[in-house]
Every structure is written in C-alpha cells, then in structure tokens.
Design goal:
This protein is an all-alpha fold. It has 2 domains: 1-42; 44-80. Helices cover 85% and strands 0% of the residues. It contains 3 helices and no strands. The chain is rod-shaped and about 90 Å long. The mean pLDDT is 86.
Amino acid sequence: MTTRSNPALTEELAHAEADLEQARERVASSISALRNEVARQADWRRWLSRHPLVALGGALALGFWLGAGGRAHLEIGGRR
C-alpha cells in the first residue's frame, strides 16, 4: 500500500511530520534558553558586581588564611 493511493494516510503522515517539526523547534528553543541561563548564572563578573562586600570579605579571609599558613610553614621549618 502506498501513500499515493490512500489520501487519509497521506494526511496523517503530513500531520505527524508537522508535529515532529514543532517538537524539534521547542527542543531547540529550550536548549537555547538553557544555554543562556547557564551562561548568565556562571558569570563571575556579574556575581561580583551584585555582591561586592561578600567578595571583599572572601578575599580578605583567603588572604589571611594564606598569610597565616605561610608563616606557620616557615616557623615549623625553622627558617624564620
């Protein structure tokens, strides 16, 4: 049986193809939106501009921790 001899089958096939194309477009749109959201959320410059005091506190804590760790290492090694 061919689709040329059965108009109902031809119409059903055309409808299925249209549905498939719409599904592809929705998936592509969703992937694009997800990619944009991930890029926006992973932007550290944006995060720093929105939370400058937290970033400053983190930088100070890291500097203190690194500074104290460096001195402790030198004292243990006896090379102070």
